[in-house]
Design goal:
Elements lengths: L1 E4 L6 H10 L4 E4 L2 H6 L2 E4 L5 H10 L3 H10 L2 E4 L1 H4 L4 E2 L5 E2 L7 E4 L8 E6 L1 E2 L13 E6 L1 E4 L5 E6 L3 E8 L2 E4 L7 H19 L4
Parallel strand pairs: 1-2, 1-3, 3-4, 4-14, 5-7
Antiparallel strand pairs: 5-6, 7-11, 8-10, 9-12, 12-13, 13-14
Subcellular location: Cytoplasm
Protein name: Imidazole glycerol phosphate synthase subunit HisH
Pathway: Amino-acid biosynthesis; L-histidine biosynthesis; L-histidine from 5-phospho-alpha-D-ribose 1-diphosphate: step 5/9
Length: 205
């Protein structure tokens, strides 16, 4: 079972549908017990970094999410990806989950913000599992970006500056774009995430 974390700030229904298209059992929950029962944890998110941290704290999910990310495959989507990092500077300074080294700041670009629309992925670090997605278009909606070390970059996009598209630290992954809004390419990206993480854990029960 895949568990999608419900903390009141995410396009959870569309994310659930995307995984269901791949044939997986999916549950939307804020129950720690249900998250512990899952094989994979998905952290979506739409909104501001600070507000998301407050919602997660109110549900007493910070420590459980940090622990679960050490135990099983974990994927953050859009704002959920930004929350994987150490700190965010949207509406003040807030601590993230600290699962991937780095910070989240406003995009520094001459282009109009927010970054909304389709953009091409560029493969970083010769990442083989995602190599077939070179130049594929995915859908972004954001004004803030993660700044992290090159070793954690799987894909990037160009928006007058390099924008992390997919990041990875062990079995913790993040996607800044919305795979659930990116058509077949988005579903295929989720499929690769599941295949790669299942290879480490065995097939889903």
């Amino acid at each position: 079972m895949i568990a999608i974390v419900d903390y009141g700030m995410g396009n959870v229904a569309s994310v659930k549908t995307a995984f269901q298209r791949l044939g997986y059992e999916v549950e939307i929950t804020d129950s720690v017990a249900r998250l512990e029962a899952a094989t994979h944890v998905i952290l979506p998110g739409v909104g501001s970094f600070q507000a998301a941290v407050e919602e997660i704290n109110q549900r007493n999910l910070v420590k459980p999410l940090r622990r679960l990310a050490k135990e099983k495959p974990f994927l953050g989507i859009c704002l959920g990806m930004q929350l994987l990092f150490d700190k965010g500077y949207e509406n003040g300074t807030s601590d993230g989950l600290g699962l991937i080294p780095g910070e989240v700041n406003m995009i520094e670009t001459e282009y109009i913000l927010p970054h909304i629309g389709w953009n091409q992925l560029q493969i970083e670090n010769n990442n083989q599992p995602f190599a077939s997605f070179q130049d594929k278009h995915v859908y972004f909606v954001h004004s803030f970006q993660a700044r992290t070390e090159q070793q954690y970059l799987v894909t990037t996009a160009d928006y007058g500056t390099k924008i992390p598209g997919i990041v990875q630290n062990g079995h913790v992954y993040g996607m800044q774009f919305h795979p659930e809004k990116s058509g077949e390419v988005g579903v295929d990206l989720l499929k690769v995430f599941m295949e790669e993480t299942n290879a480490d854990r065995g097939q889903l029960a």
